[in-house]
Amino acid sequence: MNDQHNFCMLPDDERLPSDAKALEQDFHRYLIHHLGRFLGCNPYYQFKALSYTLRDRIMTDWLNTWKQHSKAKQRRAFYFSMEFLIGRSLGNNLLNMGLSDQTEKAMESFSLELEELEEQEHDAGLGNGGLGRLAACFLDSCATLKLPMLGYGLRYEYGMFRQEIENGFQVEEPDQWLRGGYPWELERSEYTQVVHFGGRTEHFRDPEGHPRARWVDTEDILAIPYDVPVCGYRNGVINTLRLWKSTATDVFNLAEFNAGDYVESVAAKNEAEHITMVLYPNDASENGKALRLKQQYFLASASLQDVMRQWELANGQDYSDFAEYHVFQLNDTHPAISVAELMRILLDEKKLDWDQAWSITRKTMAYTNHTLLPEALEKWPVHLFESLLPRLLEIIYEINARFLKEVAMRWPGDGDRRRRMSIIEESPVKSVRMAYLAIVGSFSVNGVADLHSNLLKKGLFRDFHELWPEKFNNKTNGVTPRRWLAYANPPLKRLISSEIGDEWICDLDRLEQLKPLAEDPDFQARWRQAKQENKARLARLVEKECGTVFPLDSLFDVQVKRIHEYKRQLLNVLHVIHLYDRIRRGDAGPDWCNRCVLFGGKAAPGYQMAKKIIKLINNVAEIVNGDPAVGDRLKVAFLPNYRVSSMEVIAPGTDLSEQISTAGKEASGTGNMKFMMNGALTIGTYDGANIEILNAVGEENFFLFGLKVEEVEALRRH
Ligand SMILES: *Cc1c(COP(=O)(O)O)cnc(C)c1O
């Protein structure tokens, strides 16, 4: 069953032919013989048949990549994230596999439009916003750079909710993205793991006299992995995203079964399946529900056990150089419980002593911080740990006791500092500070933009920076140019490649080569033509979804992102009201620039203020668009259900990108980058990665305004 035992790679002639004719035949065969549908069937099945056709062509490279990674003695990265906001995969996979043209041709022979089939795919909305999309972009980039990286996440039955707008209000509908089947996933039940909850701990001495612990009387839940291929850009590398689904063990409630409560005990299976049922729709705020902690531990435990299973296939139980071959990157504190879980496995199951286990943990864990907002800093009440994860709590206490000794050695007598730095917060509710656990257990702590990383060192993590300055570093966020430019913007892609070739797709700095063309009238005309095509596509989307007509000769002014007070959609809509007022007052003179203002984004279902902002935007839109005195001078629309696939249309069609968060609040932003690489100008504040973008593109492409972080702070103190 273990394919790692057989190390031979699949030969090249194992690859399926990928010419248009072969694709045509396979598509036809899948539709008729596998899915049992006629050619003129519901287009969702046409999408599925095409996806299977493509997946077949991914398989050989996927198996070979897997084999190579398990064979090579190299350090591998494991990206632990509660969110992967993947969006659609068909078009992006075709691009990366280099099969778009043949496929388009093959579909034409059935009179099918490739683009229409692509639109059949449900977005895999397994994330809230920037943090989840970053994870998805990292997967693409690591595969393209041939880095051995495996993504670990959860296979939520229901992803991010579908947003509908009724009477101007947000209404949340469940997102059944798996309905109809997800053709990209491959169940690998042979790698199922068991995850424990509840129970109690026992302490004893092993035959050598060492103190040991075991976790007993637990409730056990199965974690079944589903693998999704991650295609590198035309390099034969297919990395893996492994998503866990929870399910009951076979021995579930056997006692009840024997007592005759067969139906009851089968119904109780539901409980186990709840863990991966739904994604929590909170962006940049913690939630505090027990089920969320269960999800976090489920991800950490299943993933770490899976990594160790792979290690033991090649190395047996020898963990002496495990640390040299593994890095676990924690995407925010959501998977921070991994620090304690790795310790538990090494101590209780692999029988290492504390110092060995701690040395491995501290050399392999790395933590990415995504926010300074106090409401997003995760703290779990100790009483929750006591009932759900008693053994993990003991380990956290031990980590903390040893850590506080270190603090006391460095700052003798400084009790205040020990209280400040303790992983355990004593009041108001005794809790575990997950960020501190992540810092203490990691060799690296990074922020996600220059500004943000500096603020971490000066503010939130100041004490830790004083203790371990060498741990702190910056990794400014990024987005993949494959999806966000080459795939999303065909007209601009063609224009750029016609001038400088297509190596820019994997090396964006090469866009510098366009500089000499900036003043070339012919290039400018073609540039504008590409922009107009993209604006027409965006205007069609807005008209279809909102019923509002955007004239193509207007400025398209766009703010799409999660709705949040700090992102200041409110400031933007106040500007719209001001523009409307000017029109009404007759202050819209000859130099007036006609403007279409587009908003989009979801509010967390429990975030009342954000929901009111959505309602306000819709009310303003109704007034402005319905006022005959306004005409084409101003249009306003709120695009419902903002998601990855809508951003693929929005960013290319935008003239002006709104990045106007209060300075110091947006850790990085990634929407800002997608717009900028599609040639939009930006209006924005001194926040997150905006500053780095401004430095790269120059002041003439970036309208900078507002206070700097220090000025905001000074203003607040007044
Ligand atoms: C890029 C992206 C985000 C992040 O946008 P920000 O402007 O950085 O907050 C959120 N949601 C979706 C669907 C995205 O594509």
Folded structure, characterized:
The chain has 718 residues and is of the alpha/beta class. It folds into three domains: 1-71 and 88-122, no CATH class; 72-87 and 123-442, Rossmann fold; 481-717, Rossmann fold (3-Layer(aba) Sandwich), CATH 3.40.50. It is built from 27 helices and 25 strands. Strands 1, 4, 7, 8, 11, 12, 13, 14, 18 and 19 form a ten-stranded mixed β-sheet that branches. Strands 22-21-20-23-24-25 form a six-stranded parallel β-sheet, with helices on both faces. It has a three-stranded antiparallel β-sheet with strand order 15-17-16. Helix 26 links the parallel strand 24 (681-684) and strand 25 (702-704). Helix 1 packs across helix 4, helix 11 (338-349) runs antiparallel to helix 12 (354-364) and helix 22 (569-585) runs parallel beside helix 23. The chain starts with 19 loop residues before the first helix and ends with a helix. The protein binds pyridoxal-5'-phosphate. Pyridoxal-5'-phosphate binds at residues 129-130, 133, 561-562, 642-644, 647, 669-671, 674.
Question: What topology does this entry show?
Answer:
Blueprint: H1 20-34, H2 43-71, E1 76-80, E2 84-87, H3 90-97, H4 100-108, H5 114-118, E3 124-126, H6 130-144, E4 149-154, E5 162-166, E6 169-173, E7 186-187, E8 193-197, E9 200-205, E10 211-216, E11 219-231, E12 238-248, H7 254-258, H8 262-267, H9 269-273, H10 290-315, E13 326-331, H11 338-349, H12 354-364, E14 365-368, E15 379-381, H13 382-388, H14 390-410, H15 415-421, E16 424-425, E17 431-433, H16 434-440, E18 444-447, H17 450-458, H18 462-467, E19 472-474, H19 481-487, H20 490-500, H21 521-546, E20 555-560, H22 569-585, E21 595-600, H23 608-626, E22 634-639, H24 644-650, E23 656-659, H25 671-677, E24 681-684, H26 690-697, E25 702-704, H27 709-717
Parallel strand pairs: 1-4, 1-13, 4-12, 13-14, 14-18, 18-19, 20-21, 20-23, 21-22, 23-24, 24-25
Antiparallel strand pairs: 2-3, 5-6, 7-11, 8-11, 9-10, 11-12, 15-17, 16-17
Bound molecules: pyridoxal-5'-phosphate.
